[in-house]
């Protein structure tokens, strides 16, 4: 790997650290580790920030053991992990192997002289709660002062969420009473936990009272995230008038509905009340003085991103009955949503529907489907579809080719991907910058331009 710039000057260590972080975020940890080795060869001492990027990158790929080996190796070089390093490792441990493994790891860290901070214990607290071991989480919470840490508002919120969703209201209330003082006072997250859990248990009246207290006190301004669980519960209970009233209150309090709100309203579709849901969405469009066309595009896209593609199609049907003509962006949203839900055959059928309705698919529609097929490890189906696209006279763009190359890589055919990439560059359908990015990101060997 060449470490000199075209001018012959060495970039500073900060530039290399930035590159390491960038490579890790792109999933190319192996290349990042090679870069770190070169940094050391050129006399740049590796710092904590740099190797934290490597540790996080490995953990994100499920390589906890390799991360631990890297930390041991760097400690031998005199580099001391910081609290952020430990929190990364502990979170990876409970996600990959369970919270018991994370606890053993913490004991091992302490035995080696490591000094984890409060964040590390909050990670363990989260792990216990996610595994449903709330009583053990309470015990850990109470023992934190003996370990030299006072639980903060985050610690309280983690435990409060589990207590509330389990309906352990007295314990939750006792916990709330103790949330007084620096770093422990209730936050907007605390109140949203209360609202969400009350709505989950069907206590929407109490949830609305909590919102009123937030608004009346003036300390916190409710957001859409505060209202959405209530809207969803009211929709689940088919209380249309109450839904309208709740949404009116949101708008009156200058709390703009977001995609979570649209998905909450879509619950009405699950209850067989599609027209009522559509009327509510249509009313929101008017109250927000937004373009009807743009508003419905946003709603369809929001539903599809959250995996609510069926309600999205139901809304689309109601929209077209009222004169709405779907555009390319709307169709792409539907295709992406179907692919995300694993309904690949249905996604391909969308093209037939478009052509039958006189709407010629464009390259963005094709790219949406090709991407969905490749992400589902059906790259060869994507290639067949790509050939059909060419046969019908649709011209691919650089994005299409990039998706195809990445799809081949996902099929663990890196050598083939390198050959295809080189051929595409020779045919001048992929720019040099894109090719170099793919080579670096996926560590494609033997590709010279």
Automatic annotation (TrEMBL):
<feature type="repeat" description="PPR">
    <location>
        <begin position="362"/>
        <end position="396"/>
    </location>
</feature>
<dbReference type="InterPro" id="IPR011990">
    <property type="entry name" value="TPR-like_helical_dom_sf"/>
</dbReference>
<feature type="repeat" description="PPR">
    <location>
        <begin position="223"/>
        <end position="257"/>
    </location>
</feature>
<feature type="repeat" description="PPR">
    <location>
        <begin position="292"/>
        <end position="326"/>
    </location>
</feature>
<feature type="repeat" description="PPR">
    <location>
        <begin position="327"/>
        <end position="361"/>
    </location>
</feature>
<feature type="repeat" description="PPR">
    <location>
        <begin position="152"/>
        <end position="186"/>
    </location>
</feature>
<feature type="repeat" description="PPR">
    <location>
        <begin position="82"/>
        <end position="116"/>
    </location>
</feature>
<feature type="repeat" description="PPR">
    <location>
        <begin position="12"/>
        <end position="46"/>
    </location>
</feature>
<dbReference type="Pfam" id="PF13041">
    <property type="entry name" value="PPR_2"/>
</dbReference>
<feature type="repeat" description="PPR">
    <location>
        <begin position="117"/>
        <end position="151"/>
    </location>
</feature>
<comment type="similarity">
    <text>Belongs to the PPR family. P subfamily.</text>
</comment>
<keyword id="KW-0677">Repeat</keyword>
<dbReference type="Pfam" id="PF12854">
    <property type="entry name" value="PPR_1"/>
</dbReference>
<protein>
    <recommendedName>
        <fullName>Pentatricopeptide repeat-containing protein</fullName>
    </recommendedName>
</protein>
<dbReference type="InterPro" id="IPR002885">
    <property type="entry name" value="PPR_rpt"/>
</dbReference>
<feature type="repeat" description="PPR">
    <location>
        <begin position="187"/>
        <end position="221"/>
    </location>
</feature>
<feature type="repeat" description="PPR">
    <location>
        <begin position="47"/>
        <end position="81"/>
    </location>
</feature>
């Amino acid at each position: 790997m060449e470490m000199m710039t075209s001018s012959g000057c060495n970039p500073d260590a900060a530039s290399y650290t930035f590159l390491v972080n960038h490579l890790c975020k792109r999933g190319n940890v192996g290349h990042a580790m090679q870069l770190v080795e070169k940094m050391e060869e050129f006399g740049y001492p590796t710092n904590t920030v740099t190797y934290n990027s490597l540790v996080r990158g490995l953990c994100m790929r499920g390589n906890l053991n390799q991360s631990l080996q890297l930390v041991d190796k760097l400690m031998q070089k005199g580099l001391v992990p910081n609290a952020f390093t430990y929190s990364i490792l502990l979170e990876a441990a409970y996600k990959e192997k369970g919270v018991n493994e994370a606890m053993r790891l913490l004991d091992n860290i302490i035995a080696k002289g490591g000094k984890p901070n409060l964040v590390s214990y909050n990670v363990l607290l989260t792990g216990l709660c996610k595994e449903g071991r709330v009583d053990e989480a309470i015990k850990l919470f109470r023992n934190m002062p003996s370990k030299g840490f006072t639980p903060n508002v985050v610690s309280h919120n983690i435990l409060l969420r589990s207590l509330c969703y389990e309906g352990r209201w007295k314990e939750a209330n006792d916990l709330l009473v103790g949330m007084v003082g620096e770093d422990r006072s209730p936050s907007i997250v605390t109140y949203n936990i209360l609202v969400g859990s009350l709505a989950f248990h069907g206590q929407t009246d109490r949830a609305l009272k909590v919102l009123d207290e937030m608004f009346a006190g003036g300390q916190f301004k409710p957001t859409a995230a505060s209202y959405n669980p209530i809207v969803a519960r009211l929709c689940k209970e088919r209380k249309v008038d109450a839904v309208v009233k709740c949404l009116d209150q949101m708008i009156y309090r200058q709390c703009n509905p977001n995609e979570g709100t649209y998905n909450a309203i879509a619950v009405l579709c699950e209850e067989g009340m599609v027209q009522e849901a559509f009327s509510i969405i249509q009313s929101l469009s008017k109250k927000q003085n937004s373009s009807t066309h743009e508003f419905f595009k946003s709603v369809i896209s929001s539903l599809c991103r959250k995996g609510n593609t069926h309600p999205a199609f139901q809304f689309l049907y109601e929209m077209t009955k009222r004169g709405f003509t779907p555009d390319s962006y709307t169709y792409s949203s539907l295709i992406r949503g179907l692919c995300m839900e694993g309904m690949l055959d249905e996604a391909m059928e969308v093209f037939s529907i478009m052509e039958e309705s006189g709407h010629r698919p464009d390259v963005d529609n094709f790219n949406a489907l090709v991407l969905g097929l490749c992400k589902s490890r059906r790259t060869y189906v994507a290639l067949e579809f790509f050939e059909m696209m060419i046969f019908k006279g649709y011209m691919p763009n650089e994005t299409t080719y990039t998706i195809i190359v990445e799809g081949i890589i996902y099929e663990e055919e890196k050598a083939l991907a390198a050959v295809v990439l080189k051929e595409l560059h020779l045919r001048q359908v992929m720019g040099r910058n894109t090719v170099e990015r793919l080579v670096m990101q996926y560590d494609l060997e033997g590709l010279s331009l």
